[in-house]
Amino acid sequence: MSLLERRHSKPPVLPKKEIAARRDPERTRERILQSAMQEFSRTGLDGARVDEIARRSGANKRLIYHYFGNKRELFLAVLERAYDDIRKAEAALNLNGLDPETAIRRLTEFSFDYSLNNLHFIHLLNCENLHRARHLRESKRILQLNSPIIAMLQRILEKGQRDGIFRKDVDALELYVSITALGYFYLSNIHTLSAVFGRDLADEQQIRLRRKHNVAVVLGFLRHRAL
Predict the structure, then answer these.
(1) 8 assigned to some structural domain
(2) Does 38 share its domain with 135?
(3) Residue 160's pLDDT is what?
(4) d(CA 100, CA 211)
(5) Cα separation of 49 and 37, whole Å?
(6) Which residues contact 100 (CB under 8 A, 6 or more apart)?
(7) CA 95, CA 63: separation in Å to the nearest integer?
(8) Looking at the structure, do residues 34 and 79 belong to the same domain, yes or no?
(9) Which of 19, 144, 188, 207 stands 20 to 30 A from 117 (CA)?
């Protein structure tokens, strides 16, 4: 083999960052996910740039495509992670060990607080709704991720119904949608609502009032006997 042939037969020299990334793939994958979450929540799927995700994560584009395939698959991975995060946080509340009213209060407060402290979650959902959930419909994990919270809420409702505290005509999924909607709509539209009604709804006092209002609405509904 000639000297020229031997030179061309050698493996390519990898950049130091890529060598480090290959030594710790889980850490690299996590950095990419977190950077992508920031980029997608800031600019949406169509506006997000893989170059910017690479810059934020310190990983090159080749590694991003290696781990996630393409930008749309990366967006789905970010959505799945976002749902995984909130479901784990809900599970950590240990609601099953509480009396029904306290459990509902905690869940309603948590739902509002989580959205308030994780506005990227709202932005990601807004983006996916614009795409009519086409990415989530392709997920093999999303139903498994989200069904436990409905099952847990169903158990809380049944206990409250047995104790004579809650009305008996409540669907767990419908209730969960109402609980999340109370915070989601307020926070996702907080700027337009403040503008059209002439009140700063982002003010700390207004935020506290809204949190308290949400709990009162949910518990008031559950305690009210059906007509």
Answers:
(1) no
(2) no
(3) 97
(4) 19
(5) 12
(6) 156, 157, 159, 160, 163, 165, 166
(7) 40
(8) no
(9) 144
Q: Classify residue 84: in a domain, yes or no.
A: yes
Q: Determine, yes or no, domain membership for 7.
A: no
Overall residue count recorded for the chain in this entry:
227
Q: Is residue 4 part of a domain?
A: no
Contacts of 42 (CB under 8 A, 6+ apart): 48, 123
Q: What is the pLDDT along the chain (227 residues), one digit of tens a residue?
A: 443 344 333 433 334 455 444 557 899 999 999 999 999 999 999 999 999 999 999 999 999 999 999 999 999 999 999 999 999 999 999 999 899 999 999 999 999 999 999 999 999 999 999 999 999 999 999 999 999 999 999 999 999 999 999 999 999 999 999 999 999 999 999 999 999 999 999 999 999 999 999 999 999 999 987 65
Compute the CA torsion angle 43, 47, 53, 56 (nearest 10 deg). Answer: -40
Say how many domains are in the chain.
Answer: 2
Distance (Å, whole) CA 216 – CA 214: 5
| Token pair belonging to 223 | 């305690």
Number of CB atoms found within 10 A of residue 177's CB? 12
Structural domain harbouring 29: 14-69
